[in-house]
Each structure stands twice: as structure tokens, then as C-alpha cells.
Structure to design on (300 residues):
């Protein structure tokens, strides 16, 4: 690509052009204001340098004076022609832009060895723009067979670097695939072992239940136990306890006081007192209420 910019005269509108890194095809857009200032989208450089977060990269490496949003200096020149240029180059007013100094700070802040060719190229672009006001690739004597336009020679050192990067990428992909396969096998083994352990524990629990079955308490045995401990000491309390006992030994008893009063022939006040006594003496405990509002009692 041949990029040329004449900055000897003041432009009447924003000028936008692209620089293309011949080695990889990496594209860096450049915006030149009517005053001749050059600005570059930070995302273009951050992406080619492998920064995961453009905003964080700017905060770490670029002074505040060297970067700002495109909208901050494009407001005064937002003509129809400028808007058309911005749209054609996919530039949005919310984009963070860096000037030449900020571009260099962002580039040199990257320490990845594989980015060295791109960093060298950006440094060359910035230096050439500062010195000559423009930047262009050197055309070779050869002509492309299809169009007859000048072709461009890729330096051998760059071509060798691309080959090395491709080899590293292939090796890294192979290592990642092997690691993922090993991880999948390991996870399957762990899952299979966990399933075997769970089955074994269930078998052990079942065996223990068969060898040592839990004693089944009857309502009569429950009442006899309460009587032996002198927990039920009046006929009224015994009547309420006898009504609740069958449900308690099955798991839970849930009755409204009106129902208990009807079945036992006691008043609501007396039923209430009997329930309080059974709770206070530890014969049962309340765990909540049923959907119909009836209290739920269980054995302690």
C-alpha cells in the first residue's frame, strides 16, 4: 500500500488514511486534523500488540495529554464529508485516539518478543511522519501481473520472523490440544471415581440399615414413655397427647386447635394450655406452620 500525505498546507477538513504493515497485514488507521495533528485509534495498536484491555493499556502507558476521544476534536469539523470519511474507515466518535507521542508510548509499553517487528514498523512510521510529514512503502521494480501496479518487497528478516511466529503458533496449538485432551481424560476419571465412591457409600448405608433396622415406635410406646417420665400428668393433657401421638411417630403432626378441641371434647383454651405443656416439657417441638396455618409438631 502506498500512503502519502502532504502536510505543507493547512487542510480544510479531516484527512483519514490507513497504514498497512506488509508483514502481517495489520492495519493502523490515521486521522489528520486541519491543523496537521496526527491521531491514531488506540484499539488498532492495542489489538496488534496483544493488549487485552485498551483502556487499561492507555492508563498504564500513555499520559492523559496524549490521548482523547475522537469526538473531542472532531466536533468543529463534522462536515458531511468528514462524517462520510469516518464511516468509511469505521471510526466512531467514542473511540480513544492517541497522538504520535502516545502511539510510541503504547507501542514501547509492550514487552512481548513476538511483537518486535510490528513495534519496529510503528516506530519507523512515526519517525518518518515527524521528519517528512508523510510515510510510504518503497515500491519495487517488479510489477504485479494482474494490475501492473507496483509490487512491494517484504524484507527477509520480516519474512523469517513471520515463519518463526507461525511455527510457534502451531506448536502452541498442538500443546494446548494435548493439554485439553489430558484434562478431559483426567476429569472423566475423577467423575467415574466419584460415581463409584457414591455407589459404594450407598451400598454400605443400605447394608447397615438391613443389619441394624431402626426401631419403629408405636403411639402406645410413645405415650408410655411420656407417662413413665411423668410428662403427661392430667387426663386433658393425655387426651391431647393421645390424639397427636399417631401422627408424631409417622413424622409430623399438623392440626388446628379447633380440630383437636372437636375430637377431644375440650375447650380451645384448654387445648391451648395442653399444647403449651407438651412443648414446655419437651414431648414435642414446633417446626413451623402448614399452608392452612395449622402448627406443625415433630418429636424432639
Amino acid at each position: 500500500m502506498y500512503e502519502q500525505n502532504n502536510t505543507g498546507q493547512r487542510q480544510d477538513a479531516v484527512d483519514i488514511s490507513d497504514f498497512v504493515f506488509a508483514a502481517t497485514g495489520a492495519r493502523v488507521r490515521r486521522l489528520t486534523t486541519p491543523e496537521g495533528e496526527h491521531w491514531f485509534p488506540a484499539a488498532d495498536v492495542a489489538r496488534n500488540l496483544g493488549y487485552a484491555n485498551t483502556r487499561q493499556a492507555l492508563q498504564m502507558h500513555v499520559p492523559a495529554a496524549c490521548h482523547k476521544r475522537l469526538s473531542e476534536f472532531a466536533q468543529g469539523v463534522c462536515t458531511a464529508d468528514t462524517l462520510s470519511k469516518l464511516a468509511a474507515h469505521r471510526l466512531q466518535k467514542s473511540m480513544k485516539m492517541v497522538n504520535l507521542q502516545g502511539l510510541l508510548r503504547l507501542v514501547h509499553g509492550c514487552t512481548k518478543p513476538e511483537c518486535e517487528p510490528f513495534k519496529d514498523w510503528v516506530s519507523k512510521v512515526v519517525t518518518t511522519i515527524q521528519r517528512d510529514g508523510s510515510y510510504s512503502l518503497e515500491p519495487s521494480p517488479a510489477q504485479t501481473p494482474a494490475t501492473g501496479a507496483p509490487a512491494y518487497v517484504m524484507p527477509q528478516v520480516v519474512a523469517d520472523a513471520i515463519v518463526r511466529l507461525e511455527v510457534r503458533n502451531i506448536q502452541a496449538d498442538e500443546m494446548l490440544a494435548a493439554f485439553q485432551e489430558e484434562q478431559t481424560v483426567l476429569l472423566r476419571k475423577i467423575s467415574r471415581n466419584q460415581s463409584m465412591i457414591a455407589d459404594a457409600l450407598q451400598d454400605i448405608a443400605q447394608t447397615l440399615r438391613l443389619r441394624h433396622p431402626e426401631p419403629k415406635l408405636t403411639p402406645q410406646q410413645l405415650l408410655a414413655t411420656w407417662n413413665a417420665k411423668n410428662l403427661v400428668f392430667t387426663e386433658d393433657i393425655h387426651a391431647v397427647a393421645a390424639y397427636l401421638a399417631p401422627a408424631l411417630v409417622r413424622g409430623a403432626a399438623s392440626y388446628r386447635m379447633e380440630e383437636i378441641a372437636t375430637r377431644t371434647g375440650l375447650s380451645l383454651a384448654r387445648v391451648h394450655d395442653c399444647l403449651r405443656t407438651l412443648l414446655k416439657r419437651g414431648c414435642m417441638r414446633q417446626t413451623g406452620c402448614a399452608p392452612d396455618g395449622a402448627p406443625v409438631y415433630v418429636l424432639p
About this structure: Residues 173 and 179 are 10 Å apart (CA to CA). Residues 1-11, 137-153 have pLDDT under 50 and may be disordered.
